[in-house]
Amino acid sequence: MAAKYFTVTWDQLHRDARALAWRLLERGPFTGVVAITRGGLIPAAVIARELECRVVETISIVTYDEEERGAPKVVKTPVAAGDGKGWLVIDDLVDTGTTLRVVRALLPGAHVATVYAKPAGKPLVDTFITEVSQETWILFPWDTEPQFIAPIARL
Ligand SMILES: O=P(O)(O)OC[C@H]1O[C@H](OP(=O)(O)OP(=O)(O)O)[C@H](O)[C@@H]1O
Ligand SMILES: O=c1[nH]c(=O)c2nc[nH]c2[nH]1
Ligand SMILES: [Mg+2]
Predict the structure, then answer these.
(1) Which residue has the least CA distance to atom 11 on ligand 2?
(2) What's the whole-model pTM score?
């Protein structure tokens, strides 16, 4: 269990992904976007829309089983992105940097961006929007659902 949780709603994710697109505008234009699946798919769709980029590729690295980290496994490589030069790589977050280390080795020329970043992974990212502490677990809207909670007075 993480020490703290940072809950992200669909609205907030959309707003933060658009803020990232604003920041990336001056770093482009890009030949295409590579989404790191699965977490990078939604921010990549928002950013590709804002940057008017129609070419979207995917790379799939499996590193976590829920909050448990394992050895990173590449289960899909991008077909069209070459060494990444001129391409924009998007992920939802960087935590330890394990996933991005693998991605950077495969696409050394790419510009790498995430919406959220934790301190240990920050050096692996070229552009990000919001930093949270290393002990915080980010809860994304696709992993959560609203539920009843007890009144504060009863906790
Ligand atoms: O910096 P790291 O310590 O490598 O952690 C960050 C990665 O972990 C999560 O992906 P996950 O492996 O859970 O797969 P998913 O995107 O398919 O959920 C997240 O989406 C990042 O890709
Ligand atoms: O949903 C997630 N939240 C996180 O904080 C995290 N770190 C690695 N992988 C993660 N997945
Ligand atoms: Mg991921």
Answers:
(1) 138
(2) 0.94
